[in-house]
Amino acid sequence: MRDEALLSIDGLCVAYDGANALNAVSLRIHKGELICVVGANGAGKTSLIRSISGIVSSSAGVVKMNGVDITGMPPWDICERGIAQVAEGRQIFGSLSVEDNLLLAGSLKRARASRFETLAFVYELFERLRERRRQLAGTLSGGEQQMLAIGRAIMAKPEIVMFDEPSIGLSPALTDVMFGVVKSLHAQGITVLLVEQNVAKSLALSNRGYVLENGSIVLHGSGDELLSNSEVQRAYLGM
């Protein structure tokens, strides 16, 4: 029987040098949802994203996409399954032009046939990238590089986009722009997993949220439920 969730994680464990970064984490994301995972720095959020995308290996647990076990698959196969990641630190190719960065992501088998149509959509979403399309990506501002990282994920024609700490290093104004883009993508039917330290903005945007502490899920509920939770308010919102 196929798993009803678009993306399901069961009992995921990740360890570095014998120290656990994730302790039997389980969560579900259904098609069309915007789910956030929030927590303090060092809670294990990035380890979760990197394990799902195949960048780091898990020591236990299962990750399924559309009911198919993708645990242990190489990252490029996971991308072809429809999972795209906007990595912490952007991870763009600085020596390539903006447009070459985008077209490279559009070279996946699942994305190749419609890559120019998708490119037009990305330029519609980010007019700044259209203006800078011939410019070397490494010469962009931090905010522009974040736009490029998001655009590159969209070029892969994903079913789900995972954002890893997208507001890090951005000004408050650009942070608002970034969250607006996440909301816009979700409104167009893209499933989103948002991993963030900005608890208030993330929960306000999300259908459901998970709170991660010391590698373990300690709370789960709707965005509104978690925003009104006294533990969340005390630990993360300064209330």
Strand content: 25-35%
Structure classification: alpha/beta
Q: Radius of gyration from the CA trace?
A: 17 Å
Number of strands: 10
Overall, the morphology is: globular
What oligomeric state is this? single chain
Low-confidence stretches: none
Question: What is the N-to-C order of secondary-structure elements (H for helix, E for strand)?
Answer: EEEHEEHEHHHHEHEHEEHH
Considering DSSP H and I runs of 4 or more, what fraction of the residues is helical?
A: 25-40%
Question: Helical region count?
Answer: 10
Tell me about the largest β-sheet: 6 strands, mixed
Mean pLDDT: 91
Strand order of the largest sheet: 6-7-8-3-9-10
* Terminal-residue CA separation: 45 Å
How are the SSEs ordered, and which strands pair?
Layout (H helix, E strand, L loop, with lengths): L6 E10 L2 E11 L4 E5 L6 H8 L7 E6 L2 E2 L5 H6 L2 E4 L11 H8 L9 H11 L1 H5 L10 H14 L4 E5 L7 H16 L3 E6 L2 H7 L2 E6 L2 E7 H5 L2 H7 L3
Parallel strand pairs: 3-8, 3-9, 6-7, 7-8
Antiparallel strand pairs: 1-2, 1-4, 4-5, 9-10
Helix pairs in contact: 3-6
Care to describe what's here?
By secondary structure, the chain is α/β, with parallel strands linked by helices. The protein has ten helices and ten strands. The strands form two sheets. Strands 6-7-8-3-9-10 form a six-stranded mixed beta sheet, with helices on both faces. A four-stranded antiparallel beta sheet has the order 2-1-4-5, with helices on one face. A hairpin with a 2-residue loop joins β4 and β5 (68-69). α3 (98-105) runs parallel beside α6 (142-155). The chain is globular and about 45 Å long. The chain starts with 6 loop residues before the first strand and ends with a helix.
